[in-house]
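Worked problem 6 (solution included).
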Amino acid sequence: MKKSIKHFISIFKSAFKEWMSKDPFKESAVIAYYSIFSLPGLLVVIITLAGYVFGRDAVDEHVAAQIVSTLGAETAHQIQNMIIMAGETKKTVWATVLGAITILVGATGVFSQFQKSLNIIWEVKVDAHKSGIWKLIRVRLFSFGLIIAVAFILIVSLVVSTTLAALGDWLTGHFSDTFVVLLQIINFIASLFILSLLFALMFKFFPDARIAWKNVWIGSLVTAVLFEVGKFGLSIYFGKANPGTGYGAAGSIVLILLWVSYSSMIVFYGAEFTRAYSNRHAGKVAPTDIARADPKRKT
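Solution. The predicted structure is:
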């Protein structure tokens, strides 16, 4: 047992060292910058897809509640206005088509940039002679596929949250508070599983590296735990310090930038942990057919 704990601590230390060497503050700032332009389109696509299954109003309410719990009511209101503006129906067919393309390109843009950051972590580079236009198409298709996966995960999250909320109300009236606490634990575990699934998809398919699923699952679970802890800590920080107050009307944008930046750093550390764990148990991971090892890669 002690040996296993020391083993994981060693991996955590190794991942932290590599994480710091890759300048996560710069990479997360780039992701935050792209997210401002991608966020409206991304949310429009996710909410629309999930809305077909669960109802647009229910999805809007669930997303708004998640944003309020993390960033506050004012920022949630600003984001809702952004979604409404981005999703407005155009007057002509061409305007509608162009608007849809713009939304899709914007929605996949942040994932495209995220893929580049993961390649830096895995120390692989795309070979321009092997990839060509297919590289751009593949990244966009993977990005849109992940958006569909996020929409599906949102649907599952909605079903689980609604079911547990209804069950919680019933348990409160019939049983002791112990059952309610148990229900909250189940809700946390379900949320952890959903996040792990999302991170597993990102870590497996985004980097141009051949990563074994067993290593991906370990890394995605660790990332999900860190993300949940980080989300809780950020909600407290934003609630107490309210760092956007000094920026006036731009305060909501600043909060979004900070949240995306901090969250990205957590995910990047999770990716570094996945890489460190994989290197420890399976050796150096080989690049895919359209990529090559970064010349600066450590041997």
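Discussion: The first strand starts at residue 124 and ends at 126.
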